[in-house]
Design brief:
This protein has 4 helices and 35 strands. It has 407 residues and is an alpha/beta fold. The strands form 4 sheets. The chain has a 26-stranded mixed sheet that branches. Strands 1-8-9-5 form a 4-stranded mixed sheet, with no helix packed on it. It is flat, with a radius of gyration of 31 Å.
Protein backbone atom coordinates (compact mmCIF):
# COMPACT_ATOMS: atom_id res chain seq x y z
CA UNK A 1 0.00 0.00 0.00
CA UNK A 2 1.49 3.27 -1.08
CA UNK A 3 1.77 6.11 1.34
CA UNK A 4 -1.17 8.48 1.17
CA UNK A 5 1.00 11.45 0.14
CA UNK A 6 2.45 9.44 -2.73
CA UNK A 7 -1.01 8.46 -3.94
CA UNK A 8 -2.27 12.05 -3.86
CA UNK A 9 0.82 13.24 -5.69
CA UNK A 10 0.31 10.60 -8.39
CA UNK A 11 -3.32 11.68 -8.75
CA UNK A 12 -2.24 15.30 -9.22
CA UNK A 13 0.35 14.34 -11.79
CA UNK A 14 -2.20 12.26 -13.71
CA UNK A 15 -4.22 15.40 -14.33
CA UNK A 16 -1.23 17.13 -15.89
CA UNK A 17 0.13 16.72 -19.39
CA UNK A 18 1.41 13.27 -20.26
CA UNK A 19 4.13 14.78 -22.47
CA UNK A 20 7.25 14.13 -20.38
CA UNK A 21 9.40 16.29 -22.65
CA UNK A 22 7.39 19.39 -21.70
CA UNK A 23 7.60 18.85 -17.94
CA UNK A 24 9.46 21.34 -15.78
CA UNK A 25 11.45 19.36 -13.22
CA UNK A 26 11.50 22.38 -10.90
CA UNK A 27 7.70 21.96 -10.57
CA UNK A 28 7.95 18.34 -9.39
CA UNK A 29 7.20 19.35 -5.82
CA UNK A 30 7.29 16.87 -2.96
CA UNK A 31 4.95 19.17 -1.01
CA UNK A 32 1.37 17.96 -1.49
CA UNK A 33 -0.95 20.89 -0.73
CA UNK A 34 -4.61 20.41 0.16
CA UNK A 35 -7.42 22.91 0.63
CA UNK A 36 -9.92 23.20 3.47
CA UNK A 37 -12.85 20.78 3.02
CA UNK A 38 -10.92 18.81 0.38
CA UNK A 39 -11.45 15.06 0.41
CA UNK A 40 -8.23 13.37 1.49
CA UNK A 41 -9.18 9.71 1.36
CA UNK A 42 -12.15 7.40 1.20
CA UNK A 43 -12.31 4.16 3.20
CA UNK A 44 -13.37 1.23 1.04
CA UNK A 45 -15.17 -1.59 2.90
CA UNK A 46 -13.37 -4.92 2.65
CA UNK A 47 -14.70 -7.58 0.27
CA UNK A 48 -14.43 -11.29 1.08
CA UNK A 49 -11.90 -13.13 -1.07
CA UNK A 50 -12.04 -16.61 -2.60
CA UNK A 51 -10.09 -19.75 -1.83
CA UNK A 52 -7.25 -20.40 -4.24
CA UNK A 53 -5.30 -23.40 -5.42
CA UNK A 54 -1.60 -24.16 -5.54
CA UNK A 55 0.24 -25.81 -8.45
CA UNK A 56 -0.51 -29.24 -7.03
CA UNK A 57 -4.25 -28.64 -7.01
CA UNK A 58 -4.41 -28.22 -3.26
CA UNK A 59 -6.86 -25.65 -2.02
CA UNK A 60 -5.45 -22.52 -0.33
CA UNK A 61 -7.75 -20.87 2.18
CA UNK A 62 -8.43 -17.22 1.66
CA UNK A 63 -7.27 -14.68 4.23
CA UNK A 64 -9.88 -12.73 6.10
CA UNK A 65 -10.29 -9.15 4.85
CA UNK A 66 -9.74 -6.44 7.45
CA UNK A 67 -11.06 -2.92 7.57
CA UNK A 68 -8.49 -0.17 7.04
CA UNK A 69 -7.42 1.34 10.34
CA UNK A 70 -6.75 5.06 9.89
CA UNK A 71 -6.08 7.27 12.87
CA UNK A 72 -7.00 10.96 12.61
CA UNK A 73 -4.44 13.63 13.48
CA UNK A 74 -4.77 17.41 13.59
CA UNK A 75 -6.79 19.42 11.07
CA UNK A 76 -8.78 16.51 9.63
CA UNK A 77 -12.32 15.23 10.17
CA UNK A 78 -14.21 12.11 9.17
CA UNK A 79 -17.76 11.87 7.87
CA UNK A 80 -18.84 8.28 7.40
CA UNK A 81 -16.19 6.72 5.14
CA UNK A 82 -14.60 10.00 3.95
CA UNK A 83 -11.82 12.01 5.62
CA UNK A 84 -11.59 15.75 4.88
CA UNK A 85 -9.08 18.52 5.58
CA UNK A 86 -10.26 21.21 8.02
CA UNK A 87 -7.66 23.77 6.91
CA UNK A 88 -5.32 24.57 4.05
CA UNK A 89 -1.92 22.98 4.37
CA UNK A 90 0.42 20.09 3.68
CA UNK A 91 -0.91 16.53 3.98
CA UNK A 92 1.09 14.06 6.05
CA UNK A 93 0.67 10.31 6.49
CA UNK A 94 2.73 8.01 8.71
CA UNK A 95 2.14 4.80 10.67
CA UNK A 96 -1.55 4.69 9.77
CA UNK A 97 -2.16 8.29 10.84
CA UNK A 98 -3.24 11.15 8.56
CA UNK A 99 -3.12 14.86 9.34
CA UNK A 100 -2.66 18.31 7.74
CA UNK A 101 0.21 20.60 8.67
CA UNK A 102 -0.67 24.32 8.38
CA UNK A 103 3.06 25.14 8.19
CA UNK A 104 5.51 23.86 5.58
CA UNK A 105 8.83 22.75 7.11
CA UNK A 106 11.68 22.02 4.68
CA UNK A 107 14.46 20.22 6.59
CA UNK A 108 17.22 20.99 4.13
CA UNK A 109 17.64 22.87 0.85
CA UNK A 110 14.92 23.80 -1.61
CA UNK A 111 16.36 21.81 -4.52
CA UNK A 112 15.25 19.07 -6.92
CA UNK A 113 14.46 16.77 -3.99
CA UNK A 114 11.82 19.29 -2.89
CA UNK A 115 10.88 21.24 -6.03
CA UNK A 116 9.06 24.55 -6.24
CA UNK A 117 6.79 25.40 -3.31
CA UNK A 118 3.38 27.09 -3.52
CA UNK A 119 1.94 26.97 -0.02
CA UNK A 120 -0.98 28.83 1.63
CA UNK A 121 0.64 29.07 5.07
CA UNK A 122 4.06 29.76 6.58
CA UNK A 123 7.14 28.26 4.92
CA UNK A 124 10.30 27.51 6.93
CA UNK A 125 13.50 26.43 5.14
CA UNK A 126 16.28 25.14 7.41
CA UNK A 127 19.03 25.57 4.80
CA UNK A 128 19.23 27.30 1.38
CA UNK A 129 16.96 28.10 -1.55
CA UNK A 130 19.00 27.19 -4.63
CA UNK A 131 19.16 28.82 -8.06
CA UNK A 132 15.95 29.08 -10.11
CA UNK A 133 13.66 27.52 -7.50
CA UNK A 134 10.46 29.29 -6.47
CA UNK A 135 8.85 29.62 -3.07
CA UNK A 136 5.40 31.19 -2.72
CA UNK A 137 3.68 31.60 0.64
CA UNK A 138 0.31 32.98 1.66
CA UNK A 139 1.87 34.05 4.98
CA UNK A 140 5.52 34.29 6.13
CA UNK A 141 8.71 32.80 4.68
CA UNK A 142 11.81 32.18 6.78
CA UNK A 143 15.06 30.91 5.25
CA UNK A 144 17.82 30.09 7.72
CA UNK A 145 20.47 29.80 5.01
CA UNK A 146 21.12 31.71 1.78
CA UNK A 147 18.64 32.50 -0.98
CA UNK A 148 20.42 32.33 -4.33
CA UNK A 149 19.10 33.24 -7.81
CA UNK A 150 15.65 32.12 -6.69
CA UNK A 151 12.19 33.65 -6.60
CA UNK A 152 10.52 34.06 -3.21
CA UNK A 153 7.11 35.66 -2.60
CA UNK A 154 5.70 36.10 0.91
CA UNK A 155 2.30 37.67 1.36
CA UNK A 156 3.41 38.86 4.79
CA UNK A 157 7.02 38.87 6.08
CA UNK A 158 10.16 37.48 4.44
CA UNK A 159 13.25 36.70 6.53
CA UNK A 160 16.48 35.40 4.95
CA UNK A 161 18.97 34.99 7.79
CA UNK A 162 21.90 33.83 5.67
CA UNK A 163 21.57 36.57 3.08
CA UNK A 164 20.42 37.01 -0.52
CA UNK A 165 22.80 36.39 -3.43
CA UNK A 166 20.57 37.04 -6.43
CA UNK A 167 23.15 36.76 -9.24
CA UNK A 168 21.08 39.26 -11.28
CA UNK A 169 18.22 36.74 -11.51
CA UNK A 170 16.81 36.57 -7.99
CA UNK A 171 13.40 38.14 -7.28
CA UNK A 172 12.23 38.65 -3.70
CA UNK A 173 8.86 40.11 -2.70
CA UNK A 174 7.26 40.68 0.70
CA UNK A 175 3.81 42.07 1.32
CA UNK A 176 4.99 43.49 4.64
CA UNK A 177 8.54 43.54 6.06
CA UNK A 178 11.72 42.00 4.65
CA UNK A 179 14.86 41.21 6.65
CA UNK A 180 18.18 39.84 5.41
CA UNK A 181 21.82 39.66 6.40
CA UNK A 182 22.83 41.13 3.03
CA UNK A 183 21.37 41.55 -0.47
CA UNK A 184 23.51 41.36 -3.60
CA UNK A 185 22.45 41.61 -7.27
CA UNK A 186 18.73 41.04 -6.80
CA UNK A 187 15.33 42.59 -7.42
CA UNK A 188 13.60 43.23 -4.11
CA UNK A 189 10.27 44.76 -3.12
CA UNK A 190 8.57 45.12 0.26
CA UNK A 191 5.23 46.64 1.21
CA UNK A 192 6.67 48.02 4.44
CA UNK A 193 10.21 48.15 5.87
CA UNK A 194 13.41 46.52 4.64
CA UNK A 195 16.07 45.83 7.26
CA UNK A 196 19.56 44.69 6.23
CA UNK A 197 22.41 43.94 8.60
CA UNK A 198 25.43 44.36 6.33
CA UNK A 199 25.23 45.57 2.72
CA UNK A 200 23.03 46.03 -0.32
CA UNK A 201 25.06 45.89 -3.52
CA UNK A 202 23.84 46.54 -7.09
CA UNK A 203 20.17 45.85 -6.44
CA UNK A 204 16.90 47.09 -7.88
CA UNK A 205 15.04 47.67 -4.63
CA UNK A 206 11.62 49.17 -3.78
CA UNK A 207 10.74 49.75 -0.14
CA UNK A 208 7.28 51.17 0.59
CA UNK A 209 8.31 51.77 4.20
CA UNK A 210 11.74 52.67 5.59
CA UNK A 211 15.08 51.21 4.55
CA UNK A 212 16.96 50.40 7.78
CA UNK A 213 20.72 49.75 7.58
CA UNK A 214 22.09 51.08 10.85
CA UNK A 215 25.44 49.35 10.26
CA UNK A 216 25.10 48.60 6.56
CA UNK A 217 26.38 50.01 3.29
CA UNK A 218 24.24 50.82 0.26
CA UNK A 219 26.35 50.50 -2.88
CA UNK A 220 25.27 50.78 -6.52
CA UNK A 221 21.93 49.97 -8.11
CA UNK A 222 18.67 51.89 -7.71
CA UNK A 223 16.82 52.01 -4.40
CA UNK A 224 13.39 53.54 -3.77
CA UNK A 225 12.55 54.13 -0.10
CA UNK A 226 9.15 55.74 0.39
CA UNK A 227 9.57 56.18 4.14
CA UNK A 228 13.18 57.38 3.99
CA UNK A 229 16.40 55.54 4.77
CA UNK A 230 19.00 55.08 7.49
CA UNK A 231 22.41 53.83 6.32
CA UNK A 232 25.98 53.76 7.54
CA UNK A 233 27.67 54.28 4.17
CA UNK A 234 26.04 55.55 0.98
CA UNK A 235 28.09 54.71 -2.11
CA UNK A 236 31.72 53.60 -1.98
CA UNK A 237 35.24 54.93 -2.15
CA UNK A 238 35.34 53.62 -5.75
CA UNK A 239 32.68 56.23 -6.63
CA UNK A 240 30.19 53.62 -7.86
CA UNK A 241 27.00 55.26 -9.10
CA UNK A 242 24.35 54.72 -6.42
CA UNK A 243 20.80 55.98 -6.97
CA UNK A 244 18.57 56.57 -3.96
CA UNK A 245 15.01 57.86 -4.37
CA UNK A 246 13.26 59.00 -1.20
CA UNK A 247 9.73 60.01 -0.31
CA UNK A 248 8.26 58.77 -3.58
CA UNK A 249 5.40 56.27 -3.50
CA UNK A 250 5.97 53.64 -6.18
CA UNK A 251 2.24 52.89 -6.18
CA UNK A 252 1.53 56.46 -7.31
CA UNK A 253 3.85 56.07 -10.31
CA UNK A 254 2.35 52.72 -11.27
CA UNK A 255 -1.26 53.86 -10.92
CA UNK A 256 -0.60 57.02 -12.93
CA UNK A 257 1.03 55.00 -15.72
CA UNK A 258 -1.98 52.68 -15.76
CA UNK A 259 -4.75 55.27 -15.44
CA UNK A 260 -3.47 58.22 -17.51
CA UNK A 261 -3.89 56.56 -20.96
CA UNK A 262 -7.22 55.02 -19.91
CA UNK A 263 -8.55 58.39 -18.74
CA UNK A 264 -7.56 60.01 -22.03
CA UNK A 265 -9.15 57.19 -24.05
CA UNK A 266 -12.40 57.21 -22.04
CA UNK A 267 -12.70 60.99 -22.26
CA UNK A 268 -12.23 60.98 -26.02
CA UNK A 269 -14.80 58.19 -26.44
CA UNK A 270 -17.30 59.94 -24.14
CA UNK A 271 -16.87 63.21 -26.04
CA UNK A 272 -17.42 61.47 -29.38
CA UNK A 273 -20.52 59.63 -28.11
CA UNK A 274 -22.04 62.85 -26.80
CA UNK A 275 -21.37 64.66 -30.07
CA UNK A 276 -23.06 61.90 -32.08
CA UNK A 277 -26.02 61.84 -29.67
CA UNK A 278 -26.42 65.64 -29.83
CA UNK A 279 -26.36 65.54 -33.63
CA UNK A 280 -29.12 62.93 -33.65
CA UNK A 281 -31.26 64.88 -31.18
CA UNK A 282 -30.98 68.23 -32.99
CA UNK A 283 -33.88 67.44 -35.33
CA UNK A 284 -36.49 66.14 -32.91
CA UNK A 285 -39.29 66.34 -35.53
CA UNK A 286 -37.59 64.05 -38.01
CA UNK A 287 -35.76 61.66 -35.69
CA UNK A 288 -36.86 58.02 -35.83
CA UNK A 289 -37.48 55.83 -32.79
CA UNK A 290 -34.33 53.85 -33.59
CA UNK A 291 -32.24 57.04 -33.78
CA UNK A 292 -33.71 58.32 -30.52
CA UNK A 293 -32.94 54.99 -28.84
CA UNK A 294 -29.40 55.08 -30.24
CA UNK A 295 -28.87 58.63 -28.95
CA UNK A 296 -30.08 57.65 -25.48
CA UNK A 297 -27.78 54.64 -25.47
CA UNK A 298 -24.80 56.80 -26.47
CA UNK A 299 -25.53 59.30 -23.68
CA UNK A 300 -25.73 56.52 -21.10
CA UNK A 301 -22.49 55.08 -22.44
CA UNK A 302 -20.77 58.48 -22.24
CA UNK A 303 -22.04 58.90 -18.65
CA UNK A 304 -20.62 55.49 -17.68
CA UNK A 305 -17.25 56.39 -19.19
CA UNK A 306 -17.18 59.70 -17.31
CA UNK A 307 -18.03 57.90 -14.07
CA UNK A 308 -15.12 55.50 -14.67
CA UNK A 309 -12.82 58.45 -15.26
CA UNK A 310 -13.92 60.05 -12.00
CA UNK A 311 -13.32 56.79 -10.11
CA UNK A 312 -9.76 56.57 -11.49
CA UNK A 313 -9.12 60.22 -10.64
CA UNK A 314 -10.41 59.67 -7.10
CA UNK A 315 -8.04 56.72 -6.67
CA UNK A 316 -5.14 58.88 -7.81
CA UNK A 317 -6.22 61.65 -5.43
CA UNK A 318 -6.33 59.20 -2.51
CA UNK A 319 -2.90 57.77 -3.33
CA UNK A 320 -1.49 61.30 -3.70
CA UNK A 321 -2.94 62.23 -0.30
CA UNK A 322 -1.49 59.08 1.27
CA UNK A 323 1.84 59.88 -0.39
CA UNK A 324 1.93 63.27 1.36
CA UNK A 325 0.91 61.81 4.73
CA UNK A 326 3.05 58.67 4.90
CA UNK A 327 6.22 59.39 2.94
CA UNK A 328 9.34 60.69 4.64
CA UNK A 329 11.78 62.32 2.20
CA UNK A 330 15.06 61.95 4.07
CA UNK A 331 18.16 59.82 4.35
CA UNK A 332 20.31 59.66 7.48
CA UNK A 333 23.95 58.72 6.84
CA UNK A 334 25.93 57.90 9.97
CA UNK A 335 29.27 57.07 8.33
CA UNK A 336 30.13 58.57 4.97
CA UNK A 337 28.49 59.80 1.77
CA UNK A 338 30.63 59.19 -1.33
CA UNK A 339 31.00 60.75 -4.74
CA UNK A 340 28.80 59.35 -7.49
CA UNK A 341 25.68 59.06 -5.38
CA UNK A 342 22.46 60.40 -6.92
CA UNK A 343 19.87 61.41 -4.33
CA UNK A 344 16.35 62.08 -5.52
CA UNK A 345 13.29 63.56 -3.86
CA UNK A 346 9.95 64.37 -5.46
CA UNK A 347 10.66 67.01 -8.17
CA UNK A 348 14.38 67.45 -7.39
CA UNK A 349 17.66 65.50 -7.45
CA UNK A 350 21.36 66.07 -6.82
CA UNK A 351 24.60 64.26 -7.56
CA UNK A 352 27.20 64.20 -4.80
CA UNK A 353 30.43 65.81 -6.02
CA UNK A 354 32.21 66.07 -2.67
CA UNK A 355 32.34 63.31 -0.08
CA UNK A 356 30.69 64.06 3.26
CA UNK A 357 31.35 62.58 6.68
CA UNK A 358 28.41 61.62 8.84
CA UNK A 359 26.29 61.77 10.74
CA UNK A 360 24.21 63.89 8.36
CA UNK A 361 20.56 64.03 7.39
CA UNK A 362 19.86 64.85 3.75
CA UNK A 363 16.50 66.46 3.04
CA UNK A 364 14.81 68.75 0.51
CA UNK A 365 14.34 72.31 1.78
CA UNK A 366 13.09 75.57 0.36
CA UNK A 367 15.59 78.41 0.64
CA UNK A 368 14.25 81.84 -0.36
CA UNK A 369 11.33 80.10 -2.06
CA UNK A 370 13.57 77.81 -4.12
CA UNK A 371 13.52 74.06 -3.53
CA UNK A 372 17.00 72.67 -2.88
CA UNK A 373 18.70 69.68 -1.25
CA UNK A 374 20.73 70.16 1.90
CA UNK A 375 22.77 68.05 4.32
CA UNK A 376 22.17 68.84 7.99
CA UNK A 377 24.94 67.84 10.40
CA UNK A 378 23.30 65.73 13.12
CA UNK A 379 25.78 66.93 15.76
CA UNK A 380 26.26 70.63 15.02
CA UNK A 381 23.02 71.32 13.04
CA UNK A 382 25.11 73.12 10.44
CA UNK A 383 23.65 73.05 6.93
CA UNK A 384 25.56 72.17 3.75
CA UNK A 385 23.95 73.07 0.42
CA UNK A 386 24.05 70.15 -2.03
CA UNK A 387 22.34 72.01 -4.84
CA UNK A 388 19.63 70.39 -6.94
CA UNK A 389 18.17 70.10 -10.41
CA UNK A 390 14.56 69.40 -11.47
CA UNK A 391 13.64 65.72 -11.63
CA UNK A 392 10.54 64.15 -13.13
CA UNK A 393 9.03 67.61 -13.61
CA UNK A 394 7.05 66.26 -16.56
CA UNK A 395 5.54 63.49 -14.46
CA UNK A 396 4.58 65.77 -11.59
CA UNK A 397 3.28 68.43 -13.97
CA UNK A 398 1.15 65.91 -15.86
CA UNK A 399 -0.13 64.44 -12.60
CA UNK A 400 -1.11 67.86 -11.25
CA UNK A 401 -2.81 68.74 -14.54
CA UNK A 402 -4.70 65.45 -14.59
CA UNK A 403 -5.95 65.80 -11.02
CA UNK A 404 -7.10 69.38 -11.64
CA UNK A 405 -8.86 68.50 -14.87
CA UNK A 406 -12.62 68.18 -15.15
CA UNK A 407 -14.78 65.72 -17.06
Amino acid sequence: MRKLAERLQLAQQAEESQDVSSQNHYDNSSVVVVKEAQELLRLIPPEPGHNGMDVFGKEISRKLAREAQIRLGQNVRQEEDVIYATCDGKIEYANGKVWVEPKCEILGNVDFSVGNIDFPGDVHVSKNVLDLFKVYSGNDVEVLGVAEAAEIHAQRDLVVKGGIAGKDKGIFWAGRDLQSKYIINAKVQAGRNIEVEKEIIQCDLVCQGRLIMENGNLIGGCTVATGGATVKMLGSAANIKTILELGMDQELREQYQQFAPQIQQYRQKAKKDKQVAETLLQNQKYITCEQKEKATELLYQASDLEDSVEQMLEQLRQITLKNKETTLPEVVVSGALYLGCVIRFPRIETTITNALAGPVKIIPRKVDGVLNIVAVDEQTSSVHDLGGTPWEEKFWGNLDKLLRSEK
